[in-house]
Design a protein that fits this description.
The protein is an alpha+beta fold. It contains 3 helices and 6 strands, in the order H-E-E-E-H-E-E-E-H. A 3-stranded antiparallel sheet has the order 2-1-3, covered by helices on one side.
Length: about 130
């Protein structure tokens, strides 16, 4: 099972919030909005990309790495809970800030854990 990469939208927001990383994976997009994803292996002579690169290139990481960064650097925990409704598993997103007792939970329900986590990451980044 592979840990999914964050979306371009979340990658842009993370870069805006000064999330930086050395990565061989990045999104590159054209001014018109056309998205191009490119992967460069570590053996490639071009090396790795970091989020200080040109505006149309954004380093991309896995959902788990960004989730850990939010928790470790900003005290924001993203919790994705599953529950069963009509014999189907659904997911709910909760965000907890360090020092707060209450969770802020999304009312929207998601079909997959990854969809729910993606929204949680976006909401968590917006708290910074």
């Amino acid at each position: 099972m592979e840990d999914p990469l964050i979306s371009l939208e979340v990658a842009k927001l993370a870069k805006e919030k000064e999330f930086t990383l050395n990565s061989c994976s990045y999104y590159q997009y054209l001014p018109e909005g056309e998205i191009r994803y490119k992967f460069i292996s570590e053996e490639d002579d071009m090396g790795t990309w970091v989020n200080q690169d040109p505006e149309n290139r954004i380093a991309v990481c896995t959902q788990t790495l960004l989730k850990n960064w939010l928790r470790e650097n900003h005290g924001i925990s993203i919790i994705v809970d599953d529950f069963i409704t009509n014999s189907k598993i659904r997911y709910d997103v909760c965000i907890k800030e360090l020092g707060q007792e209450d969770y802020s939970s999304e009312e929207e329900v998601f079909k997959t854990y990854e969809e729910a986590l993606e929204l949680g990451l976006k909401k968590g980044l917006k708290l910074i």
